[in-house]
Amino acid sequence: MLAVQQLEAGYGESIILRNVTLTVKPGQVVCLLGRNGVGKTTLMKSIMGLLKARGGSVAYNGTDLTKRAPGQRAKSGIGYVPQGREIFGQLSVYENLLLGLEASKTKATSIPEEAIAKFPVLPEMYTRRGGDLSGGQQQQLAFARALASKPEVLLLDEPCEGIQPSIVDDIRDVIRSIKSDGKTAVLLVEQSLEFVKSIGDYFYILEKGAIAWEGGLDALNDEVVRKYLTV
């Protein structure tokens, strides 16, 4: 289980996150919602260790990760698909996927079949440069790269941003298959309410860097949406 307790983080003199507490269990898709600029990506970076916590803690399966480097967190079983994908444009698709193995607990040297099976178009593009792919193809590559290490926690920061509807459907199917396996905890940041409602189990809403609301799908009603999400 991923457990974030009273987390505080920010940039320079600015505190962005304030006493954020949330949990994600294996087989559960937890969705983090909120208007632009409320701290969603900051929270993902803080969980991954890319941004140092100023207070509180991040733990996985009872192990405190708060002071561990991003690479150590990745090797503990946390996979990350960042906003904007951040694939290596000059490297081939195959080379990008191999980089995902750096976080593998088993020191694997070959890309797991299950990571590629979820995105069957990728093997056809192994020799193409990552920078030559479309946005949707890059998103599939970033997702498969994260899955290559067989993570037990998967952080997804707006995986549907700026991609065509057909690939959005593919990503929805992949998340559903991960969920059905019951082994991986998924924390998802996504702007599309329709998308998160179709796959989410539990929801947290950030407002001004703090958790303003949490609840299940049945509780995420029109009133909550108007109050915390409508622009």
Characterise this structure.
- The chain is of the alpha/beta class.
- The chain has one domain: P-loop containing nucleotide triphosphate hydrolases (Rossmann fold, 3-Layer(aba) Sandwich).
- The protein has helices at 40-48, 70-75, 93-100, 113-117, 135-147, 165-181, 193-199, 222-228; strands at residues 2-11, 14-24, 29-33, 55-60, 63-64, 78-81, 153-157, 185-189, 202-207, 210-216.
- InterPro entries: AAA+_ATPase, ABC_transporter-like_ATP-bd, ABC_transptr_urea_ATP-bd_UrtE, BCAA_Transport_ATP-bd_LivF, P-loop_NTPase.
- Pfam families: ABC_tran.
Shape: globular
What is the chain-wise order of helices and strands? EEEHEEHEHHHEHEHEEH
What is the CATH fold-level name? Rossmann fold
Major sheet characteristics: 6 strands, mixed
Low-confidence stretches: none
Fraction of residues in β-strands: 25-35%
| Oligomeric state | single chain
**How many DSSP E strands?**
10
Compute the average pLDDT.
Answer: 91
Number of domains: 1
State the separation between the terminal residues, measured CA to CA.
Answer: 33 Å
CATH superfamily placement = P-loop containing nucleotide triphosphate hydrolases
CATH class: Alpha Beta
Structural Rg? 17 Å
Helix content: 25-40%
Widest sheet, order of strands: 6-7-8-3-9-10
CATH architecture: 3-Layer(aba) Sandwich
- Structural class, please? alpha/beta
Helix count equals 8
